[in-house]
Amino acid sequence: MPLPKAELHLHIEGTLEPELAFELAARNGVPLPYATTDDLREAYRFQDLQSFLNLYYELMAVLRTERDFEELADAYLARAAAQGVRHAEIFFDPQAHLSRGVAMGTVVEGLWRALGRSEERHGVSTRLILCFLRDESAESALHTLRAAEPYLDRITGVGLDSAEVGHPPAKFREVYEAAAALGLRRVAHAGEEGPPEYITEALDVLGIERIDHGLRCVEDPALVERLVRDRVPLTLCPLSNVRLRTVDTLADHPLPAMLEAGLLCTVNSDDPAYFGGYAGDNFDAVHEALGLGQERLRELARNSFLAAFLEDDEERRKRYLAEVEAYEFGA
Ligand code: HPA
Ligand code: ZN
């Protein structure tokens, strides 16, 4: 039995495995510039975040109907459950679909068909987080939030993703204020490729409650001190960092030092179809490459539930935390 954990940094479009991409391409009559799934996998050699994003957006073209989004999410939830995920907070990128003529309702209702049945089917509770593309305009983000208003009963929070450098958090001040006024929780990618200043800005200007990645905080000791003091969770994605060359090798990842410093770190998969592993694979990888022992792994799992947006269901959080404490490695 795998260690119970929450996954808090997961782009649903990044769970599109080559086999499903080909199936949906055929079903929807969408041409793909790859002959086989092996050809497509050959393209999974990334130099940086942008080279990944190019393929990520290209492949999304196969997602067209509610059924497509349902199958995508259901396949992820099945895989996540098999790796011990008990709770998943799932990002989606509506602007990447709206721009292709796919309606907000198609995306949200499709995802919801899977998420709404996830507990009974997979034993995984879920939350949905709408991400704005930071390389699009602030006006487009506001428009996207307005388009999501009819579906807010299904959406827990907002996030910020896509190409980071050159698109500082403050660009999105207004839309984050609007999201807060609607009662939405707030997260943002910061300090993946961008500098530590973007992390500070996301906290101060956007009022974010959790940092996605946040890796580059280690370059600023005063920021680390602040994150430790305020118990601000970081959703790290070790295999993603290797594939996007944010770190040279997994053995160079600062996770052990970050835990040692007292940061509230969590381990997540980001875009598992592209980066070589789901949540449990990321746990296994940091165990093997970084020598994190059982109590550190338990700490990471505990942190994931502490950092989850479960304030509306504290009983559930307690149950999950009890599962973590009772877990016997190797049993
Ligand atoms: N970083 C930024 N944007 C993204 C990512 C990521 O790792 N995955 C999908 N969109
Ligand atoms: Zn991400």
Describe this structure in words.
- By secondary structure, the chain is of the alpha/beta class.
- The protein has a single domain (about 5-310), classed as Metal-dependent hydrolases (TIM Barrel, Alpha-Beta Barrel).
- About 50% of the residues lie in helices and about 10% in strands.
- It contains 17 helices and eight strands.
- The protein has an eight-stranded parallel sheet with strand order 1-2-3-4-5-6-7-8.
- The chain is globular.
Helices and strands, with pairings:
Layout: E1 5-7, H1 18-28, H2 37-42, H3 49-59, H4 66-82, E2 85-92, H5 94-98, H6 104-115, H7 118-122, E3 125-133, H8 138-148, E4 157-161, H9 173-181, E5 185-190, H10 196-206, E6 210-213, H11 221-229, E7 234-236, H12 238-243, H13 255-260, E8 265-267, H14 272-275, H15 279-290, H16 294-306, H17 314-326
Parallel strand pairs: 1-2, 2-3, 3-4, 4-5, 5-6, 6-7, 7-8
Helix pairs in contact: 4-6, 8-9, 16-17
Bound molecules: hypoxanthine, zinc ion
Tally of separate helices: 17
- Compute the gyration radius: what is it? 19 Å
| Spatial arrangement of strands, main beta sheet | 1-2-3-4-5-6-7-8
State the name of the first-level CATH class: Alpha Beta
Task: Give the overall average pLDDT.
Answer: 98
Structural class: alpha/beta
Compact summary:
It contains 17 helices and eight strands. The protein is α/β, with parallel strands linked by helices.
